[in-house]
Specification:
heterodimer; A: 115 residues; mainly beta; 4-stranded antiparallel beta sheet; 0% helix; B: mainly beta; globular
């Protein structure tokens, strides 16, 4: 079946512009996660959605970052006034459950380059 | 979540077994041991997980020490496609969001 889909696969933007990154999770998965992977920081958690519960935003690095999940499915990560340090691969994952055995399935990521 | 320690890199020859170690001396009784791997230019993928007993699946085996302070991921016959970064991650069974906390992982190089 279809896996986690992310778009665009690559995004080049100018410093100060806003960007939106999209994630289509696996159908039926109630949990959705955003991570980012940069050279200096490795793979780090950003935000988590579980059903209708309030999202866990504890990993967002600043208030320029926000995310929404509409209808319990598609999610959009928005970065406002992008900075060069925002350059990274942004990864989305989904899971059937959040528990200890909730296997996370990752998309291929969006590579963001801020010039 | 408890911290894990892995070697930065390892090498293996194709078609030979590979043992990837992970130390987690501060593991708690409710922590599961998960392994993910990340192939070049791809997102991470789940490999295997366990709690106390050794586990086998089609991808690999997981050997867990009796005191649970260490574990070893075993690839029985390495292929070139197994070249990846392997992450050992502890996940609390209780009260967390299920987010994965990645360390630096072990970069496995497989030589033909």
């Amino acid at each position: 079946g279809a896996g986690v889909s992310q778009s665009p696969s690559n995004k080049v933007t100018e410093k100060g512009k806003d960007v939106e990154l999209r994630c289509d999770p696996i159908s039926g998965h109630t949990a959705l996660y955003w991570y980012r992977q940069s050279l200096g920081q490795g793979l780090e958690f950003l935000i988590y959605f579980q059903g209708n519960s309030a999202p866990d935003k504890s990993g967002l690095p600043s208030d320029r970052f926000s995310a929404e999940r509409t209808g319990g499915s598609v999610s959009t990560l928005t970065i406002q006034r992008t900075q060069q340090e925002d350059s990274a691969v942004y990864l989305c994952a989904s899971s059937l459950s959040r528990g200890e055995v909730g296997i996370q399935y990752f998309g291929a990521g969006t590579r963001l380059s801020v010039l | 979540d408890a911290k894990t320690t892995q070697p930065n890199s390892m090498e293996s020859n194709e078609e030979e077994p590979v043992h990837l170690p992970c130390n987690h001396s501060t593991i708690s009784g409710t922590d599961y041991i998960h392994w993910y791997r990340q192939l070049p230019s791809q997102g991470p993928e789940y490999v295997i997980h366990g709690l106390t007993s050794n586990v086998n699946n089609r991808m690999a085996s997981l050997a867990i020490a009796e005191d649970r302070k260490s574990s070893t991921l075993i690839l029985h016959r390495a292929t070139l496609r197994d070249a990846a970064v392997y992450y050992c991650i502890l996940r609390d069974v209780e009260g967390n969001t299920g987010k994965l906390i990645f360390g630096q992982g072990t970069t496995l190089q497989v030589k033909p």
